[in-house]
Amino acid sequence: MKFDHLQGSIVAMVTPFREDGSVHFDVLTQLLERQIAGGTDGILALGTTGEYSTMTHEEDAAVVEHTIRVVNGRVPVMVGSGSNCTATQIEKSVEYQNMGADALLLIAPYYNKANTEGMYRHFAETADAVHVPCILYNVPGRTGCSIPVSVVERLSKHPNITGIKEASGDMSYVMKIAHCVTPDFQLYSGNDDITVPVMAAGGSGVISVYANVMPAMCHQIVADWLSGRHSQALANHLKYLKLMNDLFLEVNPIPVKTAMNLMGLNVGPMRLPLCEMGKEHEAILRETMKEAGLL
Predict the structure, then answer these.
(1) Which of these is catalytic: 165, 210, 240, 257?
(2) Which of 52, 96, 120, 137 is catalytic?
(3) Which domains does the chain have, with CATH numbers?
(4) Is 137 a catalytic residue?
(5) Are residues 178 and 187 in contact, defined by beta-carbon separation less than 8 angstroms?
């Protein structure tokens, strides 16, 4: 399935685990079906929310294979293939492309904190090695570095780099790269709480954590905005803003997996060094979920 020019709500999937820590593929199937039934426009496997950083390469590949097989072309599947080692990123990108990924999500090189030219080459050489669309992933809160505006400008002209997931939460940065948006380069919000403002700056939708708990509403907010029903989109965005924010009371995906378990979705635990949510924060999240009609 083509990913080019995708607009809408793309869910950043959690990876469900059994109590022994193994991937729970039966639950993953159920979650994927739930997303598709809820109108989700695209699936992201192995994003930050999917805890790929604590999974083996074999587990990563198994999740990708399972996701692509279950989705079966009904919506596009994007796969996080990023690494702070460019050679590893290229290797994983080629592998996931060959497995049938419709697009790849490429994170900024964390820990290394490359200079501007190194940052550019990290993305450009990966995009040169594959033929499926590549989406940049700017998340400085995780990586310790931001993709410089000048690098986004250069990469937006690369024929195989077709967008950016902007997850800094910095609307000033969003506005500085908004002029890069063209029919061939999309801007996606990586923060649920500013989805509508990012779309007002030319964004095509959101790559969402919130969609794990309310897929239909996340889809509706984006669809309403893109269809010109701006007041309705904003009203729903504000209605569920507290829930979106409370899903980040602790580091992602601790709160969203907690919420999904409270909803009976049986996504299981996190992998260390992430662990169960603190009781005080869980109580706040429970109350917000009740207000949102989820409990």
Answers:
(1) 165
(2) 137
(3) 8-228 (3.20.20.70)
(4) yes
(5) yes
